Amino acid sequence: MTLFLGLGVGGIALLILSLILDGALEGAFGGVLNGFFDGLLSLPVIAGFVSMLGFCGAIVLGTTDLGVVAAVAAGTVAGAVAAVLTWRFSRALMRSETTATPRGDDLLGTSGTVVTPIPASGYGEVLLRLGGQPVKFAAKSHEPVGYGAEVWVEATLSSTAVSVRPVQR
Description:
This protein is α+β, with helices and mostly antiparallel strands. It has helices spanning 2-20, 24-28, 43-63, 68-94; strands spanning 111-116, 123-130, 133-140, 150-156, 161-166. The chain has a five-stranded mixed barrel. Strand 4 and strand 5 form a beta hairpin. Helix 1 (2-20) packs antiparallel against helix 3 and helix 3 packs antiparallel against helix 4.
């Protein structure tokens, strides 16, 4: 019983280590496996197997009179199921897609508001929406633009600066 509980606790400890040493086991093989197991030998998968082997074996041994062989067999089956589920879950997480990262070119043609007046030969500041979030950019214009004026983005000069023109209504 103590051995099974030790395996269960050891699996939990291995899982915690896998969170700290993300990808260490895959890197330890130095690419020898070259994706052969496709994450099947990752630390979370091994930790899931060892934990379920230990805890399930301890439960079978403690609650039945079937003996050590049955406890090992039940623990192995439960460990294999936990390992496969962990492997499939991690694969699903790794393959999940995210939305595209907003870029400066996404600002072209958008409108904003001047928050720091833009002089004719210098920079002011405008408040624009990038990815749904308000972001303040340095702004340059061919003509002076006063505080609170609505502007259109004509070009992105850098990741933090844009060229704007006032909106004529």
